[in-house]
Amino acid sequence: MSKTIKIKKGLDIKLKGMAELSIGGEITSTLYGIEPANFLGLIPKLSVKPDEYVKIGTPLFYDKNQPEVKITSPVSGKVVAINRGDRRKILDIEIESDNKFESEQFSIGELSSINRDSIKEVLLSSGLWPYLIQRPFGIIAKPSDTPRDIFVSGFDSAPLAPSYDFSLANDLKSFQKGIDVLAKLTDGKVYLGVRSGSKLAEVKNAEVNVFDGPHPAGNVGIQIHHLKPINKGDKVWTVDPQAVVFIGRLFSDGKLNFSKIVSLTGSEVKNPMYYKTVVGVKASPIVSGKTEASGKERIIAGNVLTGKKMNADDYLNFYANQITVIPEGDNYEFLGWAMPRFNKFSFSRAYFSWLTPGKTYRADANLNGEERAYVMTGQYEKVLPMDILPVHLIKSIMADDIDKMELLGIYEVIEEDLALCEYVCTSKIEVQHILRKGIDLIVKELG
Amino acid sequence: MKLLRTYIDKNKPLFQKGGKFEKLGSTFGAFETFLFTPNHTSKSGTHIHDTIDLKRTMIIVVLALVPALLFGSWNIGYQNGLAFGIERSLLENFFFGFFKMLPILIVSYVVGLGIEFISAQIRGHEVNEGYLVTGILIPLIVPVTTPLWMVALAVAFAVIFGKEIFGGTGYNIMNVALIARAFLFFAYPSYMSGDTVWIEGLTSQTAIDGFSGATPLAQLAQGAAAPVASISDLFFGFIPGSIGETSKFAILIGAAILIFSGIASWKIMLSAVIGVMSIGLLCNGLAVNEYMAVPAYYHLLTGGFAFGAVFMATDPVTAPHTEKGKWIYGFMIGAFVVLIRVFNPAYPEGMMLAILLLNVWSPLIDYFVVEGHIKRRMKRFVIKKNV
To answer: Whole-angstrom distance between the N-terminal and C-terminal Cα of chain A?
Structure first.
């Protein structure tokens, strides 16, 4: 049954550079690339050689531990380079696009008549499988598992996040189809979390729930916690709405189409708006000429809380639907701690941003202080709408205490859920980094 | 500013590893980051960080202490005037007291920060900001007549054995300023209690007739029936006592700053008041002697309760780290203050011991709160049958 769930705790950080709801054009690049590092826990094994011709959907590499999990090419063209770093680690696979966007043909029967195993088979061979993310741990789903339920968050509440209502507006049919496919993968339900009034809410074959309140209301982990929390032994899958569309497209005509709409946001972008492009595109054609170009900006694939830092020459993260450009902020500030800092935001009232609730800020990547031991208490709890004691959880990870981590709820969270805790932290503790270390330890010890 | 920055950048290598003054690296770092917020940018996790840091947090607490400090200075002069029948103006009173208080403040900071700098250097850490607050708390909770060498000794003891051996700010179990106070209280009791220590000059000279110099709390402990002073004297602080503790009005200004900025927990302050009132009223109801009959609200207005509840019980490191735990902790502090004051004739004041006791208990309180939390989470867990 559809519910409205009110999230009270959390924080909307108001930043400058919200994307205007219009499309600035279609952006293609000659070179496209996939970086294996974008896939958590995956050890890449190559399936192509340089100079080979690939179509969309031709496998580029697969996971050493689960060879069924393949990553395929997002464009058609020629593999031009496989770049390696230290110890021959594969950095990226570069493909020169022939601009034809030809796809491999996948044979798919009528959706009502195909069984779960053949759906899995299609998802695995097409390279869409890595979009199925397993909770706990936030890693690529295991092909042998059947998830308890599948969760999709239909909105992103992070700072400057793109609106899926806008970017998926022309793909609603594919979205529906994708949901239908997902529904066949679980014995439970497909849950879709939306903002009230969202167009995605009309979808059938899924339980739609409305989430109201500040970030992290749009995080799928928070939604799971409020709908049907994960206990030890449970496995659920989460899928990004853009990926639901990719799946829907594939099951409509048997062809892959990795084109998507990404938002270019942030205070350093002159005219923040949306651009139509393809997975694996180089960042430079999207970004260059559109920023203030002070030479001191930070380009982030994703949002400011959870995104990955990138260079303009890098390829856009496989999962990213957003590029954010903010000032690097690697400068000194005279007596910064004593200054009024009217143009900086603080969740606490030790500064004055509480006086101007509507103001938007030009936040930079400066830590605004040095790392310290935990001193303040009660801060994390204010921005985490979950029945979890975040500081105790983080401390249990610091102590490598697996039993305590389990009891305190590590199965329910991944980095994005605790990102706001890291933002508000007075002691500048690297919460997300520590949490991933804890998850890695559990995966290693318990499999 | 640019000149200063260039100067720092030029000399920085001398203090870094391999430099000539490597051994002063932490000291250099402390001054550098005091002058300039560092240029460190985010390496992992969130790309943006809140503007708040520990320096700002501590400076807000120091700010919140300023009203108590200013009033305390004035009151030293005022009490001295009362004792010896000297007429002074407002400013004369203030400066008389201010220059009596200032040496204690300076000794506290010099000794305390000195130890902080040295131990940071030994560990190769940055200097932590915790002592900024402790350093100003200590002069405010001692009698004005405390000899400076005693202050120095107490500070050294408190910082080394109360904090540094545990690992520094953030790791200490008990409130550092209160350890200094407790050290003085038990090592030099004659300098910390009695009727003469609260008034500047009274330890060596005789007061004019009719002036006792005893704090209202001491009078109550000696069996005097309430009221021992008018409510407004108690509230505004025209009474003898430790330097910063007398004016509840000045303390409330500090409390307002701390609560509004969100730096101290209002839950602890409120539950401490509730604790005092409930045990105080219980005593009133069962009163068999004069002290038990003292109105419960008297405990809020006398002694160090208000100062302790606002500035010391709320120390986030030594208070429980769970929100539920803070309620229990505050309440028990309030309860113990009344119990110690009323039922323990040896100590007129109970706040110091109540907070120290609860500091020791707060990990235990947290333990039970966390266990309760885990139990509640486990209840959610439904054992699945094999289907």
So the answer is: 35
